[in-house]
Design brief:
The structure holds 2 protein chains of 2 kinds. Chain A is mainly alpha-helical. In chain A, α1 packs antiparallel against α4 and α1 packs parallel to α5. The N terminus of chain A is likely disordered. Chain B is an all-alpha fold. Helix content of chain B is 75%, strand content 0%. Chains A and B meet through α1, α2 and α3 of A and α1, α2 and α3 of B.
């Protein structure tokens, strides 16, 4: 994976990753503290909103350019493929965070023994988001990919039935 | 120097600073808002995609 370091986006991605790892460590058998997990969800959700704002600006600009340079849908789609992947990854992360919040609430209320599955889905979604930002030439620091590669150490599998 | 690019970089830095301050404060205070209170119902990027595809539809016609 290529890595670039030329504006403020890396900080956003780094915060996303750091919050995610916090989620994984807390949920992965270290005594499970729902309040700390909730804080990590709060930070991750805030990072998602900031990242969304940046990607939206880039989407508008690149879509204008893609329309101007294209004469068919196929050409336009080809120009926009990277950003469409990033948009899908943002939506996936959005959904995973909402599902994780419900799971943490159930855990906190004693209706579930943990929230590992849903938190693993957040980690998976953030991982795809970071990969898609890189593919769309939106800078991602190497520290993020290194940290995200640790995710499987802490959690089990994301069960996709839990995060539509 | 491209003024538009400078403004965009300044906006990214501002976003990063605001987000960093929020993250530190949230962790220090153990703050934990509900995710649904933070994230919008529809993402800005999704709305941008919908707008862009509507404009592409106007230019290229229906998708094959």
């Amino acid at each position: 994976m290529s890595v670039r370091h030329d504006n403020g986006v890396p900080w956003l991605a780094l915060l996303l990753a750091a919050a995610c790892v916090t989620l994984l460590v807390l949920a992965g058998g270290c005594g499970g503290a729902p309040k700390q997990v909730r804080t990590a969800l709060d930070v991750t959700a805030t990072a998602l909103v900031a990242t969304d704002r940046i990607v939206a600006d880039q989407y508008d600009a690149r879509a204008d350019s893609a329309r101007a340079q294209s004469t068919t849908w196929a050409e336009y789609d080809e120009h926009m493929a990277g950003l469409n992947r990033a948009e899908a990854a943002l939506r996936q992360t959005h959904t995973a965070l909402l599902v994780a919040q419900s799971s943490v609430n159930a855990w906190d209320e004693g209706a579930a023994k943990d929230a590992k599955g849903a938190l693993a889905c957040v980690a998976e979604a953030v991982s795809e988001l970071v990969a898609s930002l890189d593919a769309a030439h939106i800078p991602v620091p190497s520290q993020v990919t290194t940290v995200l590669s640790l995710a499987p150490v802490f959690v089990g599998q994301c069960e996709h039935g839990g995060a539509p | 120097m491209n003024v538009e690019l400078l403004l965009q970089v300044a906006k990214y830095v501002e976003d990063a600073v605001v987000l960093g301050a929020h993250a530190m404060k949230a962790i220090r205070e153990g703050r934990a808002r509900e995710v649904s209170d933070i994230i919008p119902e529809t993402l800005r990027t999704t709305m941008a995609r919908q707008r862009a595809e509507a404009e592409a539809l106007a230019k290229f016609g229906a998708q094959p």
